[in-house]
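Sample pair:
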Amino acid sequence: MAAVSPITVISWSEFIADPPLMYGLFPRTPGTLVHDPNRVMILLDSNEASQKEARVLKVETIEELNQLKTEILRKPILMRVYAEHSKVDDYGVYRVRTRWRGDFALLINTLHPIIQGQLTEKFKEATNAMLLGEQFCLEFDLSEALERWYAEILDTATDCSRNTTTSRHTRIYITNHTKYEHCFDCNAVWCVLCSPCWMLSAPCYMIHRAATVKDFQHFIRAPFVMRTPLSSGHIAEITPESDREVLQRSRDLLQQQAEVRQAQVRLQQTVPVAPPSYSEAIASPPPVTTQPAQLHPAI
């Protein structure tokens, strides 16, 4: 795994349809994600509402922290992340807004030297805090790296456009207390729409948090690779530095996936869904689930 890219992303729909795309770490079980806990750590939940808690790793003792550190540094981590890129083209008399949404399986190769160096340094700080009897929260954040990669791979910037990129479910928390609540971070939405609420709640939270918990936040910086299957049966690995033809194919693919996702959202919002009949209900396929299974490691 040390030779594999530090961070790999695959479109979630392609990944769940063919899990072996992720370097053979998962068996071919379309629609069901089966994994070997000895080979890969999964930080996701089949329930969208539980995604945040799936990325909070609690420890109570220094022994548990050291054990978690060893586990993280010896096998890759799989997460499900989301990115959104918006472009506003201003042509003077009118504006055109375009939006892309991406849903990705993201693998952090913790065995790669670039990743291991960053994680090890921050684990030392957390260990020192715990040895002093302090409450702490160690946060590894992939938001900046993911947003930068998504904007670069789409490459939609023009002289008359404004671009913004956001992401979700990109943080991993390791704590013996509670995770830091980023909803209290100052941003434009809070200032414009909820200024009185923010002024009353955020300072109190931040003062109390600083007095009781030691927060360590680290933005992981590493190159991305996107893997996607080709019609020929081969797998293409795409980076912002890929040749023009391959890169254009990846942009077209991302835009098609974003358009399909937007169409599905609009359809759900506008078309009422009738309850299924009895025969349809018993014939419907089971939902995607995540379950561990002991597998023999690949040779």
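Residues 244-270 form the longest helix (27 residues).
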